């Protein structure tokens, strides 16, 4: 067993990734819309791979490498495929897959 006590001053928790994540909508919330998902894509370089797009810089809080593999596989998108080459229909399906996989994961007792 282990434990810890942390003290923080102000809003920051001293963890860059946490601080960034709390400012963005949870992917299971109503605020995580397709339009929001598209805005994330539009702020990235087109040659960015699908895997890097989904799993880095806390673009989508809580989405890590483990669940990322399931999402990309079910969406039929190769992890190295540049996001600029993903059609709008496929990108919409990717958005729907993100929401579906994360929803199923939490319904089965995974963390949200």
Detailed description of the structure:
Helix 4 packs across helix 5 (88-107). The chain is mainly α and 112 residues long. It has one domain (25-107): Helicase, Ruva Protein, domain 3, CATH 1.10.8. It has five helices and no strands.
Identify the notable features of this structure and list them briefly.
112 residues; mainly alpha; Helicase, Ruva Protein, domain 3; 5 helices; 0% strand; globular
CATH architecture: Orthogonal Bundle
Nearest-integer average pLDDT: 87
- Taking pLDDT < 50 over at least 5 consecutive residues as the criterion, the unreliable ranges are none
Discrete helix count: 5
Please give the largest β-sheet. Answer: none
| Bulk shape | globular
Could you say what the CATH topology is called? Answer: Helicase, Ruva Protein, domain 3
User: How far apart lie the N and C ends?
Assistant: 23 Å
Specify the CATH class: Mainly Alpha
Number of strands: 0
Into which percent range does the helicity of residues fall?
Answer: 40-55%
Strand percent estimate: under 5%
Can you tell me the number of structural domains? 1
* SSE order, one letter for each helix or strand: HHHHH
Structural class by secondary-structure content: mainly alpha
Q: Cα-atom Rg, whole angstroms?
A: 15 Å
């Amino acid at each position: 067993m282990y434990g810890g006590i942390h003290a923080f001053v102000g809003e920051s928790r001293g963890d860059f990734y946490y601080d960034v994540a709390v400012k963005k909508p949870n992917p299971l919330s109503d605020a995580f819309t397709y339009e929001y998902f598209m805005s994330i894509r539009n702020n990235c370089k087109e040659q960015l791979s699908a895997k890097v797009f989904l799993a880095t810089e806390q673009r989508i809080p809580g989405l890590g490498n483990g669940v990322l593999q399931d999402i990309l596989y079910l969406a039929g998108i190769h992890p190295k495929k540049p996001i600029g080459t993903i059609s709008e229909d496929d990108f919409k399906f990717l958005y729907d897959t993100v929401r579906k996989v994360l929803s199923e994961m939490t319904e089965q007792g995974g963390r949200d």
